[in-house]
Specification:
3 helices
Length: about 400
């Protein structure tokens, strides 16, 4: 009966909504300690039967069975395309799935690339550090030189370039490259420096900006390498006594903000000893939290926060002026506290719904997983599953 319902969903157009913007279009969730997938309207797409589940990419998902070693590639209907064993199977990127083979030690593990039939494309193994394919290339270590990294094309040929200490996966056409000595820049798919390696640290590009660091400064640069946002802890006004500031955003949010945390605690910032400063993507100031609080990323006009007002811990959402527009219902927590290897479960609004969880889920089944909308309505996953099983 359940399989028939899944096929009916596909017939009605579920397959057509698997887009490149997968993270924004779908909600992953826990039920009975297993992971499943809902669409943007909270319609069940993939039943919760997996230990891990990726977001859809190029029309496919990676799923880990409860045995902890068997991976399945699923199509948009939730049907198994192929099955393989290993430490990790990534969903396809440029049509190829990266599989890390588990040989019992991370020093022995190797990477192979599978096509959509589950066949080994290159018929050879690569170093574990080999990245996924994107823009027609992947970063990989030279044979017998695990610290000499270059780019490889879709034919398995190494691109002629100066070897680097590390290469990260491509994002928005550029990849972070680390030279020997740890200076960092950004590569194009030809293995050339698109942005010179003059930084100490760098994150991937997202929505046209990337975070980089140099000395005590944090910057966000555009794809030309031009500085858009300059952040220096000593130059921030409205400081708390004895506080230290650090940039908490690693990338610009969908609503175009980055944010920093200022705390009087040098070890562990808490909602009662911290402030949050938001900056627009052009570097102009947004707002400083009006009370002690740790805020999150803005999506759909609001951001989550955990704060302290008159000694009382509160959780909710504020708008772009810092005004509280919604409190989290009593007894619930944000799902940010739960993470997996495919990117965590952040409590941000997506198509009008945000994932939350009952604070008391001591049974370990996570049956308290629910979704909240701006009107304050709560839909439990267990109720969705009950309707699906009828």
């Amino acid at each position: 009966m359940k399989n028939l319902l899944v096929l009916l969903l596909v017939f009605l157009g579920v397959q057509s909504i698997f887009t490149q913007d997968a993270e924004r279009s779908y909600h992953r969730f826990f039920y009975n300690n297993r992971v499943g997938l809902l669409d943007q309207n909270l319609t069940l797409i993939i039943e919760p039967r997996y230990a891990e589940l990726s977001y859809p990419r190029e029309g496919y998902l990676s799923a880990l069975l409860p045995d902890g070693k068997t991976w399945q590639l699923l199509d948009s209907r939730g049907q198994v395309v192929f099955q393989v064993q290993g430490e990790r199977l990534d969903p396809p990127s440029d049509g190829l799935c990266r599989l890390i083979r588990d040989y019992g030690s991370m020093f022995d593990d190797k990477v192979v690339f599978l096509d959509l039939n589950g066949q080994d494309v290159f018929q050879r193994e690569f170093d574990r550090s080999t990245t996924e394919f994107s823009q027609g290339v992947a970063g990989t270590a030279k044979p017998f030189f695990p610290e000499h990294h270059v780019l490889m094309n879709r034919s398995g040929e190494l691109i002629k370039m100066n070897a680097l200490f590390h290469i990260q996966p491509f994002s928005e056409g550029l990849a972070v490259g680390v030279k020997y000595g740890n200076s960092v820049g950004f590569l194009n798919p030809a293995g050339q420096w698109a942005i010179e390696p003059v930084w100490d640290e760098a994150e991937d590009f997202h929505l046209g900006l990337a975070q980089v660091k140099q000395d005590t400064f944090t910057y966000f640069i555009d794809t030309r390498g031009e500085v858009v946002i300059r952040f220096h802890p000593k130059l921030i006004r409205d400081r708390l006594p004895g506080e230290r500031w650090f940039m908490n955003s690693q990338r610009v949010s969908g609503d175009g903000y980055v944010y920093a945390i200022g705390s009087t605690d040098r070890v562990a910032p808490q909602p009662w000893n911290s402030r949050t400063l938001y900056l627009h993507r052009d570097g102009s100031r947004g707002f400083l939290s009006p009370f002690s609080a740790i805020g999150g990323a803005f999506e759909e006009g609001v951001a989550s926060f955990q704060g302290s007002v008159n000694g009382e811990l509160i959780l909710g959402f504020w708008d772009t002026s810092g005004q509280i527009v919604q409190y989290l219902p009593e007894g619930f927590i944000f799902t940010n506290e739960i993470y997996d290897t495919f990117g965590g479960y952040p409590s941000v609004y997506k198509h009008g719904w945000v994932s939350i969880m009952e604070k008391d889920y001591s049974t370990g089944t996570r049956d308290g997983w629910a979704f909240l909308n701006r009107a304050g309505e709560i839909i439990y996953v267990r109720d969705i599953m009950e309707q699906f099983s009828q």
